[in-house]
Amino acid sequence: MIRPHHFWPNAETAADNAFQQPADGRDPEAIARDAYDEMTRAAEIMEAHGVQVHIFDDTTRDTPDSVFPNNWFSTHPGGHVAIYPMFAPNRRRERRADVIEMLKRDYRVQEVVDYSGLEPDRLFLEGTGAMVLDHIERIAYAVQSNRADPVALERFCSHFGYEPMVFAAHDAGGVPVYHTNVLMCIATDFVMIGLDMISDPARREEIVERFTASDRVVVPLTNAQIAHFAGNAIELQGKNGRLLALSARAHSALTAEQRALLSNSVELVPLDVPTIEMAGGSVRCMMAGVHLARRPSPKK
């Protein structure tokens, strides 16, 4: 997780991110301070649940979206790390060598595949924002957008062994969805997904069949629930089993029946991040998962 010191809704991403909210004259220092506190508290809650969190501080002023690190890198079992090409120029500055060096030092990293060289050709793939990865069935779900170029997606899938599943999705106003991870969350036993936003009925049915074939419960989310970031959640392993980290806003948007159904599989852990959500992302975007084997501690 990246703790921002100068958080601010990113003007370079506002054009195609309908989830962003304008600051409306609010004091920039107050917004930055609130975002800093929200991220700090979220990390503390995760650690209290037994999730190890690596925190990196971002003190720069030219990376307003740095609190969302899952877009620029991802990690994969077997010691693989991917670095991604980013759509907005100021988001490209979020990539940092110290994060990759920490992974190499503390975990078994065999290779780092860097796709950022695709940016001059305007081929973008914004990590596990643009893709939602089904690690069990090896499928990469991706909404059609300028954040998920099909050429870049094909390269990733060929290298990392995923089948691409691309589809169009729009909100109730017909605005295209910018990132797949605001639309769906894939967990071990269930999938939360905004089915009504998938434009092609045949594709929608195919996606549901893929999930049910792997014995997952499909939890449909309404457009209103998606707008409250109910799809932007992440399953993690805690000290007492699996948990689902999601925002307090998303948790409140779920029905009592949905919360009860999810609780059969995971512990729901709501995190209060309303300031950070102004930037058009939520809890899932704030966490870049580590799927690497730890190196043994050096003997003294």
From TrEMBL:
Q: What is the official name of this protein in its record?
A: Amidinotransferase
Which keywords accompany this UniProt record?
A: Transferase
Report the domain of life of the source organism. Bacteria
Instruction: Return the InterPro entries for the record.
Output: Amdntrnsf_FN0238
Q: Does the UniProt entry include the keyword Transferase?
A: yes
GO terms, molecular function: transferase activity
Give the organism, scientific name.
Denitromonas halophila
Q: Where is this region: Disordered?
A: 1-25
- Pfam families named in the record: DDAH_eukar (PF19420)
